[in-house]
Amino acid sequence: MRDLAEAALNAAQVKGAGYADVRLDERVQQDIVVKNGQLAAVEDDASEGFGVRVLVDGAWGFAGSARLERAEVEEVVERAIRIARASARVRSAPVDLGPPVTSHGQYRTPLERDPFSVPLTEKVDLLLRADAGMGAVKGVSIRESSMEFIRQKKIFASSEGAFTEQELYESGAGIEATATSPDEVQNRSYPNSFGRHQGAGGYEYIIALQLDHHGQRIGEEAVALLTAPQCPSGVKTLILDASQTALQIHESCGHPTELDRVFGMEAAYAGTSFMTPEKLNHLQYGSPKVTITADALTPTGLGTFGWDDEGVPAQRSFLIKEGLFVGYLTSRETASVLGQQSNGTMRADGWDRIPLIRMTNVSLAPGDSSLEQMVAETKDGVYMETNRSWSIDDKRLNFQFGTQLAYEIVNGKRGRMVKNATYAGITPEFWNSCDAVAGASEWKVWGLANCGKGQPPQVAHVAHGAAPTRFQHVKVGILK
Amino acid sequence: MKSMEVSRLTDEGALKRFMVGVLERSPAQQTEVMVTEWDSALTRFANNGIHQNVAERNVSIRVRVVKDGKTGVASINQLNEAAATDVLKRAVAIADLQPRGEVVPMPGPAKTQQLEAWSDATAAATPEERADFVEVVCLKAGRAGLKAFGAFGTSAGQLALANSLGVFHHQRSTQATINSVVMGEAGSGYADRGAIDVRELDRNDLADEVIEKAQRNQNAQPVEPGVYEVVLEEYAVAEMLEFMSFMGFSALAAQEERSFMRLGEQITGDQVSIWDDGLDRTGLPASFDFEGVPKQRVDLITRGVASGLVYDMQTATRAGRQSTGHGLPAPNTEGPFAVNLFMQPGTAAKAELASDIKRGIWVTRFWYVRIVHPKASIITGMTRDGTFLIENGRITRPVKDLRFTQSILEALTGTVALGRSTKLQVAEYLGGSRVPPVRLEAFTFTS
Fold this sequence. Notes:
Helix content of chain B: 10-25%
Number of helices of chain A: 10
Radius of gyration of chain A: 23 Å
Shape of chain A: globular
Number of domains of chain A: 2
Number of strands of chain B: 19
Helix content of chain A: 10-25%
Largest sheet of chain B: 7 strands, mixed
Number of strands of chain A: 23
Number of domains of chain B: 2
Strand content of chain B: 35-45%
Strand content of chain A: 35-45%
Oligomer: heterodimer
Radius of gyration of chain B: 24 Å
């Protein structure tokens, strides 16, 4: 592998690249699905290949191939160089990567039990037990449980002398119960929506979820939602559970602080950002309760690694400090435009894609309240739990989210369960209305393995640390 | 120079020999091999210049085995003997290690219609050609004092499927797509095109549309949210149809009682007819699905009446009928999927759709659409890149983007008119739709 990397870098420089990097990537993934008491899918995927990124005349070219052969390396380098020369004909300012990056080393996700060494029967048995819990509830019409395991070995080498080797593991699992009536489809999932809760770690991560202890509860909640009243409409106090807070951070803070979006590099697809550079260190993004960091060192976070895909070391930086907008997620190219250095957020979803600025573990710092205290202090509010739908505009300002489960809060007490709960807002108004965040004991890292960005499309696995959080004067109950 | 860029795909004969070799070696009672291979490139531009420019060659070999009533699936992205041995061994090992489950049957041999979805010009498109195209869009935008953003992709690929019951199907296809957002200081426009043959994409036509839209959409002012009569351009209509497909056109959604489809009942206005047809050459044709079943046309909504669903092997077996050729790759727990949607056009010229609207909204496209209530077909999303106020039959001014929360069926029940021309919209991941613009009498904007 090292030979191929060196061959690619040599060829690129001989052919005229001012900068070149190569990533060799080998990934295996196992997915298991149990549906309605039966094993519905077991899939074992393997993919390997390499991608070469070059700068020629200040413009980028990239090519990748699945064939890990010397002759193919030569051809792929040639292709990347030719593409870069074509880019140079229609480029804006030449790319400046800033100071060289010369990282060296090895990194492996800390884990106790390699998930690929766990027998399939053990995994299926756990899913079947969780399924049985849901199946014991009358009225549950669809039950689905799943696990996913990923091992990715990657080598990064650059013409500046960087050479890193990483072995990254992910483990995830989740269960979901659906109940239907002639007019409604209601579902509940555990621990999170989007199929699974996923983290960087081994099979111990799955065991800790105790999937088989939660099947019956979520089944009962799904059925109860069918006959629950609609979420009331109005402007109310809103308390979000930690998982929905995590998604709120993702959509309304993570994405708009991606500096490539700010510079228009995603304008035709994912959109731009309202958090433009003149607002840096000036915009009161949220209340003083709101401090948000990007931290690629967070244990079990899907955005935890040794180096990003430009060889920049994993690190922690502030995006929002006590409500003030103070930082971006950056790459070498974008950071240099602001006279900064990359904070290490460039990641590709495989050997066949270029790295883009992606969230690492973008987390809301824990506060000093608790869910119990927040409810007790609320006269007229709604508590919402577990995402069901999410939508936000291309500048990341106007959002509307829906959750699976909600309860009214009346005079400091949790009231009726309500269904089809939604809330909407404008990002800075919303975060400035944040008046309480629960403490460290309720703070948890939530993995999100479905973050889309880029053309051709890429899916990133990111994470968000969050605790239950309260907001004031929020529009809720928007169904039409 | 050009020949080096011609997409490199494995010869059909070699592919067949490879796949038959896997089938012959398999110890399972039934085996299926699916190969997808692609060579694609994409040139991305921002601020009137190319900023990302990529190409990839890849292949996927997916093997499904059924052994003693148990199914195993494995994939690998290498096309050689060692990889074939490895992927087969892993699929069999998975089957051996698991309890018996529901087996999705494999189809037997059936004749498929030969469809031409290939263009040599697209397969041979070079980075220089893509740059030339992009340059025209950027130069025209620059001359107008605007900035262009977008992506121009060309790809060539092939799908082959063989199983131990004697099925072998093979199809090559190409695709060329361009999308662009053009921005001024205070607003933006959008246009896209898609075709099998890259030569059908007209750079000047695309640039003119997106620039004209951007110029008209400057300094938008807010408008009160509420219920408006609307004209939806083809971009928005296609997205609405895609969400109907996600939520309701699949037999699995109906079998699991998640679908809004009530077969035999009037569910939209009687001007609305929607069908899926993978064999229609004006779409993105495909002669067979990912289970090896020949594609069939399925009428989904006929003059407003829910008239059909799409089936794969699993849902068809459960219903005691034949698959319609809408299966996805195994293992699939999501059910069948309609990916070649068509909507019946009407008789109105697009520009006339607003002609007697007293006060309404013209929508270029939707953005970030998500499902709020699947059974009521309620979706939410934003308008983007060109939202305009219609007053007394004329577009009078741009308005700030609006959030909508709306039942699709209720909106289509109020169909007033459909445009007489249709546009092919290439979907982001799979397939595409051919749709007209539509005028709807009521659409709810919530903020």
